[in-house]
Amino acid sequence: MIVSNLQNSGRIEGLHPMFKTLFDYVKTHDLLHTELGRIEIEGDNLFIMNINPECVSQDEQVLEVHHTYIDVHILLTGSERIDWKAIEDLSHEVQPYDAEAGCALYKDKATTWVDLTPGQFMIVYPEDPHAPIIGQGKIRKLIAKVKL
Asked: pTM score, two decimals?
């Protein structure tokens, strides 16, 4: 897991060949005023889901684990909490890995959480069980999918 501000993305852009492409795109496009939905950058290797979800309570949200993608959560408006727990500590699976859905789900209690504000991002790798979209009200955010 990595948490930072968009202005500091250069510090981590060398960690994956697609990170620089992603952050350059985000910084040069007005994604707050772009239509909601999938934004293609490099086909299935790199795309962004531009969403406007209603947040849920921490007790309602489950942890998700992905196998083939790194998630980059980028908050545009509002306030969002993302929960985290070490993968080796998971014990309450509620949905086994589903390749079509792209994740497995767990009902474990998180041990760590991050509160994002607009302009911040959180990168979660497949070994980072995470529960996004926690809070109150609607938010606007991007979830970039970066293929391993």
From this structure: 0.95
